[in-house]
Amino acid sequence: MASLSVRSDTFEDGQILPAAQRGAATGPGGKDESPPLAWSGAPAGTRSYAVTAFDPDAPGHGFWHWAVLDLPATATSLPAGAGARHGGGLPLGAFQLRNDGGSAGYLGAAPPKGHGPHRYVFTVYALNVENSGLDAGASPAKLEAKLGPHILARASLTGIYERH
User: Fold this and answer.
1) What is the spatial distance between Cα 95 and Cα 81, in angstroms, rounded to a whole number?
2) Closest CA to 129 of 59, 75, 89, 72
3) Which of 150, 130, 157, 144 is nearest to 4 (CA)?
4) Residue 124's beta-bridge partner residues?
5) Digit-coded pLDDT (tens) for 50-105
6) Phi/psi of residue 22, each to 5°?
């Protein structure tokens, strides 16, 4: 698979998620604010991007915190807060799926107290299609299967958070 890289100005890969990216109910500073993300190195033929945030350590089969689809090929970043429920920080044509909490937009990190550290994996997918063929009612759990044949490259950035 082609090379793609992703970074954030607020945390490094494998480091603790800043308070703003945590759930509002987790304590001081929790804002349910999506982090700023920037990516580069998309391969030729990239026609759109998708961005997801997934907690593979959540009880059950993990927890989808965010999914953005149909980002234009000209996009190389998302500002902090782009994942607001109203989606106002997204480029024209992009949209968000419902997270596993049942609402559109980014839902901050909020692992169960005492459950140990959880990984929050932010992934950017470079796709060879302009439109994902999904709508806002689609389940994030089905996203990778639907996009799988269209992924040219992907890159992930992982933040860590634990509630004591």
Assistant:
1) 14
2) 72
3) 157
4) 51, 155
5) 999 999 999 999 999 999 999 999 999 999 999 998 878 899 999 999 999 999 99
6) -95, 165
